[in-house]
Structure formats: structure tokens, C-alpha cells
Write a structure and sequence with these properties.
mainly beta; Rubrerythrin, domain 2; 3-stranded antiparallel sheet; two-stranded antiparallel ribbon
Length: 77
């Protein structure tokens, strides 16, 4: 069950939605607007060394390299 990011065209808010099968959100949880569409989500990874230090990161060359958020929905990057 993936979590997708969506954008509401009515209130301009981004939100996450846990999708079961082909289930899609019908309305925005913030304003109830019905014009929502799925966003393209960025994915990343971090490789840890034997001491737990980050040795490689897929986002290190972008502005998200130091970000500790679990989602890009709120940062605008």
C-alpha cells in the first residue's frame, strides 16, 4: 500500500494519502475541494556504513541533501 502525494487546486495545499488498490482521494482533507491530482514524488536512499554514518545518499547533490523530512510535500523543493 503506497502513500502518494496529492495537490488540491482549490486551496493549493499538498497532502499525502494511503492508497488501497485503485482507491484515490475524492476530496481534499483541508478544504473538501474535489480538484485533486497526484504529484510526482521524489524518492531517495541512504547507505549506512558499519558505524551508522551515511556513506552515500541519492539526494546529496540536490537541495534536499540535508533534509530529514519523510516527505517533500511541505518543503516546496
Amino acid at each position: 500500500m503506497p502513500i502518494y502525494e496529492y495537490h488540491c487546486q482549490k486551496c493549493n495545499q499538498d497532502f499525502e494519502y494511503l492508497v488501497f488498490g485503485s482507491d484515490e482521494p475524492e476530496t481534499c482533507p483541508s478544504c473538501g475541494g474535489k480538484k485533486v491530482h497526484r504529484l510526482m514524488s521524489a524518492c531517495g536512499f541512504k547507505s549506512k556504513g558499519s558505524g551508522g554514518e551515511t556513506v552515500r545518499s541519492s539526494a546529496s547533490s540536490s537541495s534536499c541533501g540535508g533534509c530529514s523530512a519523510t516527505s517533500c510535500a511541505g518543503c516546496g523543493s
